[in-house]
Amino acid sequence: MTDPISQNENRCSHWDNVYKTKQSNAVSWFEADPQTSLDLIKCFAPTGGSIIDVGGGASFLVDRLLESRVWHVTVLDISATAVELTRARLGERANRVVWIRADITEASELAQYDVWHDRAVFHFLTSPEDREAYLQRLNASLKLGGFFILATFAPEGPQKCSDLDVCRYDSDQVHSLLGDRFRLARKLEHLHSTPWGKSQLFTYAVFQKQ
Question: H or E segment at 166?
Answer without folding.
Answer: none
